[in-house]
Amino acid sequence: MEIPTAIDNAFLESLIGYNARRAALAVIGVFMERMAPYGLRVVDFSVLTLITHNPGITSRQLSSMLAILPPNLVGMIRQMQARGLIEKRPHPNDRRAQGLYATAAGEQLQAQTQQVVSTLESEAVTQLTPEERHTLIRLLRKVYEFR
Q: What's the predicted TM-score (pTM) here?
């Protein structure tokens, strides 16, 4: 049996999921390197960003927005509270819920890391025009918002 010298991956490259995953891995690898000094993973950054930009957001809203199972989110919230990045306060409209708020330290960390991520995103797509980048984001959102 002869081992091929050229690998035929034409079918894989015709798949949206395959290409989306390859692109995500390229960006996430650099993201993890640059976020390591801040102790944030992709999901941590996403949670902190939503809390910072939406003071009083509930755990239920975060779970829904980021497609995170509630038990998994509970652990993340506890870790962020322990780090002094967020705090819980009574929700103004729902006595059963608690709102999540970034502390001053959380706001500062989010602002720093948002700048790092913005720079990373720009560097990751230098081969795309601004219009192509906008189109790519719009099309990817159409895929995941369909569900």
A: 0.87
pLDDT tens across 95-118, in order?
788 999 999 999 999 999 999 999
Element of type H or E holding 96: none
**Closest Cα to residue 40, out of 86, 90, 98, 97?**
86
Q: Locate all alpha helices (DSSP H) within the chain, ordered by sequence.
A: 10-13, 16-35, 42-53, 59-66, 70-82, 104-124, 130-146
24-57 tens-digit pLDDT: 998 999 999 999 999 999 999 999 999 999 999 9
The Cα–Cα gap between 86 and 105 comes to 8
Q: CA 140, CA 47: separation in Å to the nearest integer?
A: 20
Tell me how far apart the alpha carbons of residues 85 and 105 are, in angstroms, rounded to a whole number. 6
Q: What is the DSSP letter of 57?
A: B
